[in-house]
Amino acid sequence: MNKLFFLLFLFLASCTQKVWMVESPVYLDERIKVSVKTDEWKYEPRILPKHVIPVYIQVENNTDATLKIRPEDVYITDAKGNRYKPLDAMQVNESMRQELAWWYPHFWFVLGDFPDIINRAFRWGDIPPKTQRLGFVYFPALPSNVDSAVLHIKEYKFNLKLRKY
Prior knowledge:
The protein is an alpha+beta fold and 165 residues long. The protein has helices at residues 2-14, 89-103, 115-119, and strands at residues 18-22, 26-28, 32-37, 52-61, 67-69, 74-78, 83-84, 125-127, 131-140, 148-153, 156-164. A hairpin with a 2-residue loop joins β10 and β11 (156-164).
């Protein structure tokens, strides 16, 4: 009986859903608004959040100057100071193709690109005055011992907490 209970516990523990949540999802400067959501991925492949952290970012530039957002302006840090850089959408796409090909080896030739990963990615570069840019930035899954982190977007900081369901 104890062995059965232990196996059931292991199974349920492995099914625990981990979701990164933003504590304060909006930063509003005088004329720049940055919004962040971590639970927005509702596209294909549905299992993407089990492999990477998709962070939905919306930047509104209400100034008269061009705002530039580059990959090096966006990163996550943990309590130990480790820095996690964003992943390229094409890399994430290829990684998911390989992952699913491993699970479905007889159908690997059917697995094309995942347009949602690529088309919904945040586009780096200039944000002209009075416009906005939005999309997903993908980060590597953080180590299992990390339960809080900080998302940096230029000088703006967002606290992230890990919730387990």
